Amino acid sequence: MLLNELTDGSDIDQVLLVRSSERRRRRDGGEYLRLQLGDRTGAVACMVWEEPAEVERIAPAGSPVRVRGRYTVHPRFGPQINLQSLEPAESGTYDESELRDGPARDVAQMEGEVRELIATVQEPHLRMLLERVFGEGSEMWAGYRVAPAAKYYHQAYEHGLLEHSLGVAQAVSAISATFPGINRDVAVTGALLHDIGKLEAYTDDPSNIDLTDAGRLQGEIALGYYRIRRAIEEIDGFPPELAQAVGHIILSHHGSLEHGSPVVPCTREATLVHMIDNLGGRLGSFDRLEKELAPGSRWSSFDRAIGGGAFFADRAAENPAGGRVAEPEREAA
Fold it and tell me: For the chain, which terminal residue's Cβ has fewer other Cβ atoms within 10 angstroms, N or C?
């Protein structure tokens, strides 16, 4: 069964993917291991109280494992697996496509929509830049189409960067005509390129997304800015003011210094991309949280990305009483 089909008290004997593995310290000085196990429909927490070091060795992040236990829905902490045993999954006992999260939209369709959007950019230098980055034989395009958008909070799966950046660019394109003074070509170009630094900032293993050394040492914004700056310098006659406008969008798209941008948005186009990027990320968090909900639940636990619990009203028919809001998991005693 898939995780979203399980109900409170269901016995489990199936293969799941280790999404994350974190050793934590108990208040009595001992250690335990917190695993996040998942399939394509969501994820669930699993605490390992006995021999955490051995389980950590045989179940690293990104590995499929056979799990035996019971699926429970704690009134405060939400869905969990009470573990009985865990072992490496044998080859041929699972379908890998059933374990990995992914975009709701067809990848080929999204790739086609990127090309359609690029074709609407009228400024020749910006069009040339986009065609170089997203050309069929481009190394950047090969990475862009499969890279994740994040390590955890939103679209943290293969093709996530494509899904996120396309959504931001399409929204920017649609809203550009609503407000006067916005250069649509600059805004769309910046939207498609704003997260390009994630090609170097994250590892290329979709089963174990993590920051690279370059991502930790330099950050995805700096990596993206210099990558696009180099591409621009290879285009003869690229107008300096356009280079500055696109570069500013990349540098400022996190919106504030405390969130990692070296500068704040100072143009209409940069402000628009930042706002839509932030919106896309937050709505992506709702998708993630809904996948993790126990059957019948309408409220998620507290989530840092949205600053509270998420409410899903369309689940009211399954749980008319609404139920209690799950609280964040607390460290074990």
Answer: C
Encoding tokens for residue 57?
Answer: 């060795």
Alpha carbon distance 39, 97 (integer Å): 9
Tell the burial category of 293 from Cβ atoms under 10 Å away from its Cβ (0-12, 13-18, 19+).
Answer: buried
Cβ neighbours, 10 Å, residue 321: 8
- Enter the tokens of residue 294: 């126990």
On whether the pTM is more than 0.70, the answer is: yes
Contact at 8 Å (CB) between 172 and 284? no
State how far the alpha carbon of 72 is from the alpha carbons of 3, 135, 280, 318, in Å: 11, 48, 32, 18
- Most distant pair of Cα atoms in the chain: their distance: 67
Q: Where are the domains of the chain?
A: 3-99, 107-286
Provide CB contacts within 8 A for 89, sequence distance 6+. Answer: 15, 63, 64, 65, 66
Say what the pLDDT of residue 2 is.
Answer: 84
Q: Is 81 helix (H, G, I), strand (E, B) or coil?
A: strand
Task: Identify whether the C-beta of residue 25 lies closer than 8 Å to the C-beta of residue 31.
Answer: yes
pLDDT at residue number 119: 96
* CATH architecture group of domain 107-286: Orthogonal Bundle (1.10)
**Six-digit token string for 311:** 């409410």
154 close to 278: Cβ distance less than 8 angstroms? no
